[in-house]
Protein: RNase adapter RapZ
Amino acid sequence: MRFVIVTGMSGAGKSSALRFLEDINYFCVDNMPPALLPKFAELCFEQDGGFERVAIGIDIRGGKLFYDLFSVLFQLQESGYEYEILFLDAKDSVLIKRYKETRRSHPLSRKGSIEEGISKEREMLRDVKSKATYIIDTSNVLTRELKEQINRIFQDDEKFDNLVITVCSFGFKYGIPPDSDLVFDVRFLPNPYYISELKELTGNDAPVSDYVMGFEESRAFLDKLVDMLEFLIPHYIKEGKNSLVISIGCTGGKHRSVTLANALFAALSQEKHTVLLKHNDIEKDAKRKG
Structure:
């Protein structure tokens, strides 16, 4: 039987994760007091196959009861019950934005600021996060992308590195994405913008992609970039990094950066990394003209 404990930062997507687990036939219970876990686990594991997949949502909504979680996890281990912990996380700035957009208050900031509540919660969850089997940082993850990751881990049993890599194209004239960890400038490559039949297309179109990748320097850049990242990624994972944003920029974020971002995404995906692809500025020139 697969027994999953879903926890993490409030606003990071725990409710969505439980919903997606339910969609793939997990028996889900949300906001269970940790003290009830051993008895519930006993019922689940001794049902002779009655439960094959179980997911339990536990978070700081339980107040002081949440502090029982560590002793409870020890009890589960002592009883021989195997479990996995899925921890949902996100950057503070993203969590603050989500709370402000929904006009909800943080569970730990009823009388204070959202920032204070997030800080308190992060401290409370620090040790739980260190014990997590899987950590998903949802800062740059769309709902459908979170569902795909949940399915990969808990339905398809694919390898998961706890590092979500986002490959992002952008235009320097619109600014470097503020959440970038690594930034690469491909403005040294020949620009399709100056070729009339390619100007209105994007790097998602084969004629532009073929043009950009037709140059030896484009292919050499991609090979060297992939080689460097394959060296860095294991070290980032070892360090405990959960999110890596690789931004590739050209002038307008429409041709060269899109082409190279697509190529890098394909290369990293082949290595079974968890990779997301975003094109920040691909439509901005069209909108300006419109």
User: Anything to note?
Assistant: Residues 164-289 form one domain.
